[in-house]
Every structure is written in C-alpha cells, then in structure tokens.
Protein 1
Amino acid sequence: MVQNGSNRLRAAGRSCDGVLAMLAVTSVAQGHDDQALALYREGLDLCRGTGDVICAARCLEGVAQFAGQHSQPVRAARLLGAATALRTRIGAPPPPAERPTLDRVAAEVCLALAAYPRDAFAREWAAGAAFGLDEAAMCAADVEVDAGTQTGT
C-alpha cells in the first residue's frame, strides 16, 4: 500500500519529497525497514533537487535512526549533526512531536559511541554538521539495514 501511494504521486508528476518521508514513517511502523530506508533516501534525493531543507533534515533524521538501530553509530551521529545544522541554518527546529524521538535516538547513539575514544559523539556530530547536503546524502547512502534485525522479521 505504501509503495502504491508513492508510485501514484510520481505518476501524477506531483512533488512527493515530504510525502515520501511520511510514507517511510509508515513503513517503519509496519516493520518494513528496507522499504522505509529506500523511501527516506528517495525523499532526500528529491529534496536535494527541490531545495526543501526541512524535508531533507527529516529524511536525514530518519536514516540516522536506522544507522543507530543497525550498529552504525558513527554514521548516525554524523547524520544527526547534518540534520541539526540544516535546521539551524534556516531557523526550523524539529516539531515538538518529533523531539522525543530525536532525543532518544541521539541518546542511544551517544551510548553506543561510549566504547569509542573520548568525545566521539561530539566529534562525529560536528563532522556531520560541517557536511553539505550532498555529503550528508552520501553518508545516508552508506547506511545498511541488517536483514536479520528488521523489525518485521
């Protein structure tokens, strides 16, 4: 059903960057991690083309959540840093409803990086904050979902 909706929007020639991010959230809830990750990435690519910075940040945050959940805390911290920097540049903080999830993801990533050298979270976050949108998209493209840890399996 999720894929049908995005296909219809594309066929109608309508902008679907923000819609893809919302469809990704639905896919996560349904346990379809691979599909959700693909939707976030596609949304990010469209955002890069349209200049929709808020949607780009939302997509980066979604991919960061996957990176954190799938043992890629360095990428997760960098993506969170990139998303935060984008939002800061345009003065658009995350909506209050999204803040608890982002705080939880950041806390989990920080905890995962505790095994790394001191201040690893701050260093990686700052590295991501220095990314341009293209570099952040490349980082997002490197995130992988381990098939054995998908929520739907």
Protein 2
Amino acid sequence: MQFSKHLLVLSLTAATLALATPASALNPQLLPPGMRFHPGASIHDGAMQANRGSYALRCHGVQVGDPRNNMAMARTTFLDALAPASHIHPIPTDVASPDESAARYEGELKSFYGADRLDGARPLFDLVLMGVGPDGHTASLFPGYPAVQETARWVVGVPKANVEPFVPRVTLTLPALASCREMLFEVSGSSKRAILARVLSGEKLPAACARSEGETVFLVDQAALPEDIRGR
C-alpha cells in the first residue's frame, strides 16, 4: 500500500476491520483480474496513526444520537481516539432531504480535492474501506437502484434502503469510490459466503462493480470464503 507522504485520506463504511484469511489458504489464480487477497494483517494501527482526513462513503440518514447512525458508531469505536475532530468529515444529517445532504457533502469533497472533476492520476482517497451487503450492495448502492448508474455526481441521496435499517441514505457513487489508491473490502461470516461467490464470479452487483482505479483488495475470513477459492 502506498499513501501520500504527508496526508492519508481514508473513506470508510463501517468500524469493523477483520484479519484476512492466510494467503496460503487461497488459490490466487481463481480470483478475477485486478483483485487480490491481503495476507493476514490488520490495517487499523498503521493506517489510522497517520490519518489526516477521514471521510464517510455512505451514511444512514438519521441524527447523530440515533444508534443507526454508522458514522457515530465509527467515531465512538475508534475514530475519535485516533484522529482530531477537524480531520473527521461525516455526511451531514441535519438537513431536509438526502439529496440536500448529498449536495452539501459533494461540495465539501470537491473543496478538499480542489477541482470539480476527478483526475485518474490524482486519487481523491488513499484508502476506501468497503463491505458487501446480503443483496450484493456496497456503500448504499443497491442492486437495481439509479444511484448505481450515476456517473456525473460524486454523492447521491437514496430515499429508501433495500435492507435494514430502512431509512434514507447518502452514498458516494462508483466513480467517486473508484478514485482511490486502494479499495479494501472486509467480508466475514458464513452468511456472506453465497453473496461473495456471486460478487467474485462477476455478476452485475454493486459490490462487483466497485473497483479502485488503483488496487482492489478483499479481506475475507474462512467462514465467508467461497469453496472454489479455497486452496486445495
């Protein structure tokens, strides 16, 4: 992983990081092109000690005090202890609609980036942390939703989620998520094995469409690992 010399910009979707399955348990030739599994190591300390900027990549449209607010969970769990408040940039929830929240956050991202158009040679983020939902969604990009097809905007509102909690969401779009040096998926638990197999097979699910312009890495535990990717 190579990051900016003085600035690490992290975009996250959850506060849980897991250890990877050991590389010896995998057959890398069975992975789709451009993807790899990370050998067993935690990025928590190495990434966050150098952190100068943390941006949310999606948000449940509920107030900070609501237990369903995922950024509040991340801050309580680890962000507030590892980064100053001025370097943490949550998606605003004190607005009238998801679209208004998305517009404000897109403006904040563009101000930080210093341009209105993304440049493939200059990533918006160093590291984007991702997950895979039970329906194949990632961030708050749900299968069949218009947000998955968005190519112009960086951030969009999602009026209603496809899975619990069924609240309005705000999410970065695929082009904004792709603008990173490394995209890191964390997938754990046997309940994710079937959907992960579909994602890795190339099925047109949002989690399969989300790819970094740099490198895409999957951190997967043994329980979630599809049978055809296990080493023999």
